[in-house]
Request: fold
Amino acid sequence: MSNNDYREVIDEEEKTPGTDETAGEQEKKELSAAEKKEDNEPEYEDICYICRRPEHIAGKMIKIPNNICICQDCMQKTFDSMNGSGFSMDDMMNMNMGKMPNISMINLSDLQGFVPNNQKLKKKKPKEKAQPEIDIRQIPAPHKIKASLDEYVVGQEHAKKVMSVAVYNHYKRIASESKDDIEIEKSNMLMIGPTGSGKTYLVKTLARLLDVPLAITDATSLTEAGYIGDDIESVVSKLLAAADNDVERAEHGIIFIDEIDKIAKKRNTNQRDVSGESVQQGMLKLLEGAEVEVPVGASSKNAMVPMTIVNTKNILFICGGAFPDLEDIIKERLNKAASIGFRADLKDKYDDDENILQKVTVEDVRKFGMIPEFLGRLPIMFTLDALTEDMLVRILKEPKNAILKQYQKLLEMDEVKLEFEDDALAAIAKQAKEKKVGARALRAIIEDFMLDIMYEIPKDDSIGMVTITKDYVEKKGGPIITLRGCVGIEQKTPPQIAAGV
Reply:
C-alpha cells in the first residue's frame, strides 16, 4: 500500500461517524428526539370500544377506521365467535359482494355518531413520591407511632396504644424472614366504638403515616358469591387498586372493613342469610391468609377483565363497627350478675354510663351475632371512648388538621383573620354533644353559623378580623367585626355583617 493510499484510508476513517465528536452530536440528536417524542406523546390513552378497558390494563390496542380502538382480547374473541358459528372469516374476506344478495358490508362511518367523544382516558402523570413520616423499613417503635397519631387524633389513648403495638408487631413479622420453626401469626383487630368516635379517621391517619396502601370498604354491600352485591374478594381488589395494581405492595397493605356489625347473623328469619353469617364464613380465609384471585381494574369478575393472584397472609385486617344494641347485651349480663339479694344493684345503674362498651367481652359480641370462627381470627379487640364536651373542644382546635384551622385558612385567603372565643367553642361542643353523632356534628354546626360570614366577607375589603362569640353560636347575637386599623365593632345580625360596619 502506498503512502497516498494510506492517507486516503485515514481521511475516510476521520469522515466516518464513529469519533467522539460525531458520537456526541448523535447523542444530542437522540436526546432532542426523545424530548420531542415526550412532547408529542399523546396526553390521553385509548379505551377499548367493546370492553371499555384502558390501554394500560388491556394492552396494545388495534385501531380501525374512524378512531375506533379494540383490544386484542376482544378482537380475538370476535374472530373465534364468528369461526365457531360456521361463518369463516376467510370466506367473508374473499367472497364477492355480487354473490351476497341483500347483504352489504358495514360502513364504519355510520358508527361515528355512536363513538363518544371522550373515549380516551387521561394518562396519569408521574408524581414525586413524598417521603413518609414513618419509614416502615426501619420498623418504628410503638411509642413513635403513637406520638405521630397524637398529632392528629385527640384522646383515645388506649385505642392508639393498641393499634401502635399491633401495627409494630405486624410489620416486624413481615420484615423478619426467620428460617426457624417459629412462625408469627397475624394480629387482626376488631374496633368497637360509638358513631363519630374516630374509628375510620384513626385508620386513615395510620395508613398515611406509614405510607402503605389502604382500602376502606363497607361491609353492608358484601354478599355471598352468586348474589347481587359485592363479592367478598372485592375488598382485596380495592386494596390492589389503592396500590396502583402493584401486587407486592398490596400484600403489605391494610384493609379496613367498616360497619362490620352489619354482617351479624340475622335473628328470627326464615330466609337465606346471604349478607350475614354467609359473609362471615366467606371472610374466614381472607382473615387467616389465602391466595385470592381478584380482578384488575374492576370490582367484579367477568370474562373481559384480567385476573391476578394476591396473597392475604401479610395483609393487616382492621374491622370496625358501632354495634348498636350491644350496650343492651352488656347491661343484661351485668345486671344479671348482680340482681339477686338485698344488696343487688339497680337495673338502671348502667343506663347513664357512656363508656359501657369498655366492659364488652367476646361472649357479648358472639351473642350480638358474630360467629366464633370469625371472632377467633380477630384476636385483638378494643373499644373507643365516647367523646365528652372537653374532648370535642380539643378536637376543634388541637389536631394538625383541626376544623378551626381549616376555616382560618379559608379566611386567610381573603386576608381576614378568624378567631373563636373559648365560650363559643364550649357552646359548639355542647350542641354537638346533644346531637349524639360524635365529632361529625362539629362541622355541621360550624357550617351553619359560618354561612353568612363566608358569604358577606368577600363583599367588603375593609374587614380585617372576625371573632365568633357564644351569642352568635347560640343565635342570640352577632360576631365581632374588626376593621383594618380600627377597634372592634359588635355586629348583631349575621346577614348585615358587611353593611353595618
Q: What stands out?
A: The radius of gyration is 33 Å. Residues 42 and 340 are 79 Å apart (CA to CA). Residues 13-21, 96-104, 111-120, 487-496 have pLDDT under 50 and may be disordered.
